[in-house]
Amino acid sequence: MKSVGSILLFFFSCYIITVFSQTIPITTHQPQPNQSFKPNQTQHQTAGAGSSSCSYTVVIKTSCNSPSYTGDRISLSFGDAYGYQVYVPRLDDPYSGTFERCSTDTFDVYGPCTYPICYLYLYRTGYDGWIPESVTVYTYNYQPATFYYNTYIPNGIWYGFDFCRGYVSSTTTSAL
Ligand SMILES: *[C@@H]1O[C@H](CO)[C@@H](O)[C@H](O)[C@H]1NC(C)=O
Ligand SMILES: *[C@@H]1O[C@H](CO)[C@@H](O)[C@H](O)[C@H]1NC(C)=O
């Protein structure tokens, strides 16, 4: 029985290693700079005038490698594969201790209703070098979307993730 057990354990280990080695390439996407990304400022302004119809909860974790305190200015934009976009020009507020090392900040954000979110970018300017760990967007009608940074964001460029390619064809039927 002992040898049967160890054989099973061996195959189980092989299975686990195989499963994990297959999922690692999916979960280790690194954020990228996107020089051509421009948030739609018009959309933000009209949203403020009352055409906004969806609310989102954005949870941002600040890395434990980040400075203890930051005066950096931080903006956020995310959206879906169909052109619906949410843009939040400024999230930072050093006076309330936002984005301190190892902290979690929660924001209620309003904007157009989106289909599943497939891109998210952060924009940082300042001298402190704030380091996010992750950004999660909660919406009422879809699974929350989490984007893992764990890295320094260069100054003055939209920096993040775009998984939208191929998204439209594979989700059209299930999303609608
Ligand atoms: C950069 O942003 C543009 C505009 O949203 C998008 O079309 C493009 O695919 C993005 N580039 C990358 C490399 O994700
Ligand atoms: C920006 O948003 C406005 C208002 O929703 C829309 O009319 C316009 O087409 C958008 N522009 C782009 C480039 O997506």
Task: Characterize the structure shown.
The chain is of the alpha+beta class. It has one domain (29-164): Lipoxygenase-1 (Sandwich), CATH 2.60.60.20. The chain has 3 helices and 9 strands. The chain has helices spanning 2-27, 41-51, 167-175; strands spanning 32-33, 54-62, 73-79, 85-88, 104-111, 119-125, 132-138, 145-148, 159-162. The strands form 2 sheets. A 5-stranded antiparallel β-sheet has the order 1-9-6-3-4. A hairpin with a 5-residue loop joins strand 3 and strand 4. The protein is globular, with a radius of gyration of 20 Å. The structure holds 2-acetamido-2-deoxy-beta-D-glucopyranose (2 copies). Residues 40, 42-43, 46, 83 line the site of one 2-acetamido-2-deoxy-beta-D-glucopyranose. Residues 1-21 form the signal peptide. Residues 31-50 are annotated as: Disordered. It comes from Trifolium subterraneum (Subterranean clover).
